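Human:
Class, as today's exercise, you are to examine the entry below, and be ready to discuss the fold:
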Amino acid sequence: MLLAATVIAIFWANSPWGDTYQAIWEYRIGLNTDAFSLSKPIMLWINDALMAVFFFVIGLEIKRELLIGELNSPRKAALPLFAALGGMIVPIILYLTLNKNLDANAGWGVPMATDIAFSLAIINALGKRVPIALKVFLTAFAIVDDIGGVLVIALFYSEEIKYVLIILAFIPMIFLGILSYYKYYSKFLWIALGGVVWLLFLKAGIHPTIAGVLLAFTVPIRRIIKVDTFKKKLSGFASKFEGESATDSLILTKEQIEVIDDLEDWTEKVQSPLQHLEHKLHYWVAYLIMPVFALANAGVDFNIETGIDWLIVLIISLSLFVGKSIGIPLLTLIGIKLKLTELPKEINFAHVIGVGFIAGVGFTMSIFISNLAFTDNPLLTNSSKLGILVGSFISGLTGYLLLRISSKKEKTQPIP
């Protein structure tokens, strides 16, 4: 769907209906009164509001990995940390070294990003040719990469900050954090206070997607009851449905309806709010938010008036393709040589090199940072997006082919 939305956006932007493409995303909607104003083009509603949900899900993933996943101990976190640092630092250095256009210096953060959705889609296409540990490794360092991207957006791509509003925004977040500590969770309360925090961040000058990440850390991960307790309750619930009324009658008894209501309450108690939210929102993000974002942002306009800076296209493409493919294996190797980390037994260094290329698929996060970096420069915005598309395509294809070829070689090697 991401790929389809990208292709549609490019064709639409350069078709005879290209003006319609631009007009739709620039159409303003919102609320304007004497005391309050919140009016934005549809494009910014997508990038500031819908993408806040995307970043909220990233925040949920980060918290889960930090507490119970591949980042919950220094030893586990070391390998993806070294890989992610290489995947961020080397592309940035390469971009700043190659770029001589002062107006384009703000785009240094564009090639540091890895699109976790596209990257995992590519590696999943290889099926059983690659070990599960490699997919876990890619997911872990992509999440560390996301942490780096969030920090970069907060520190370097936010407007003039109004600190009073930031302080006010932290009051409901602290309140939600206290509720989380005591294992209390109400989705209606989280939505209401989350909306307030989002609005305060927006008005404060910090990109509101950062609010999504921070709010995710206030969602409790612990269940109220244990699974064993729930299983015992289920046995009791099942006994209520035994007998003729449970199988032959078209309607339930009053007692059975009460049991169903009770079961819903117990089901909520046995679920981790964080895991439940991550599961439910994943589909909205994957099948709605990210394709809509791609449709609105990937429409590179090749018309003569705007033009394309082909040097910027080349620099961003190389920074993604070369920077990621060198940075990730290089820093991983350094971490191993320093004995600060080690590769899982199922992974070899050819796998790391292949994943390094796949990580050059920047797409969603890269386009997002590009919009922030070149807000008032259509030439650089268009050029950077084209560079992202070219670099991501070449990186993804190269990584896929390398891993596919290396997996064939492993199968044909004789067993010693």
User: Anything to note?
Assistant: The longest strand covers residues 28-32. The mean pLDDT is 85. Residues 378-412 form the longest helix (35 residues). The chain has two domains: 2-158+207-222+272-410, 227-267.
